[in-house]
Amino acid sequence: MYIFDVIYKLVAILKKIRMKKTFIFIILISFVLTNCKSQTEYFAPKGIIDKTEVLKNKSEWTELNNMESVDKYTRIGDSLFGGEIACNVKPLSGIDTKSFKVLAGTKYAKDKNHVFYPIEIKCIDYQDCGVCYYGKIIVESANPKTFKYLGKDYASDGINAFFRGIQIKDADGKSFKVINGPDYFYFSVDKNNVYIHSDIFKSADAKTFYYNKDDKRNIGDVFIIGDKNREWEFIPPSSIKEIEKK
Q1: 168-179: per-residue pLDDT in tens?
Q2: In the prediction, which pLDDT does 12 show?
Q3: What is the distance between the alpha carbons of residues 164 and 220, in angstroms, rounded to a whole number?
Q4: E strands in 29-147
Q5: Rg from Cα positions in the chain
Q6: Beta bridge pairs of residue 123
């Protein structure tokens, strides 16, 4: 409605100064075309090849070629984008494109200087365009030369441990390991502590902590975990209730 209001006012002004109708028409058409172009002309590339499904089971750090995408990291020429590409979203900054690689299916990436993970995803919603893209991506304190993905969104560089791109406070990266379990079973241990997600499970003993997948008490979304002294009933994502140990 704003455009038409402006056009209406412009016509009224031009009529007052008695300009020729042909000149009025030319000015109006030029105004409308220029305005519409500025509102709808967005950068939205076509022909992107998503290789995530092909590579996600290979556990290999993979370089991106031009017009390729993995885990929504996309390379276009010498630029790298994260997330959706539309609405003139800008490429990621602070990345060495020549050494950039992605570990498909994990959302982790790295170059010679940094490790990356979509720690923050930003969304914008224009009247005629919406997009969600990677914001903060640098995994602080992570060494790309020794960085290893351990599964279940956990990783280690041999000194520090990480969960979904965030350093786990005080975790020992050298002894850190993931406890195998079903979907949404996010437990890990190091020589000192048991962790659920990135939080310390203070009640459990790290040296004797266990999960037995064959325990008959594991029913549906209920899982039994324990250590030498206690047992708990765990219900994802984070409910833990102590039960009588058997």
Answers
A1: 999 999 999 999
A2: 57
A3: 26
A4: 49-50, 61-63, 68-70, 73-76, 79-82, 101-103, 108-110, 115-116, 121-125, 130-134
A5: 27
A6: 132
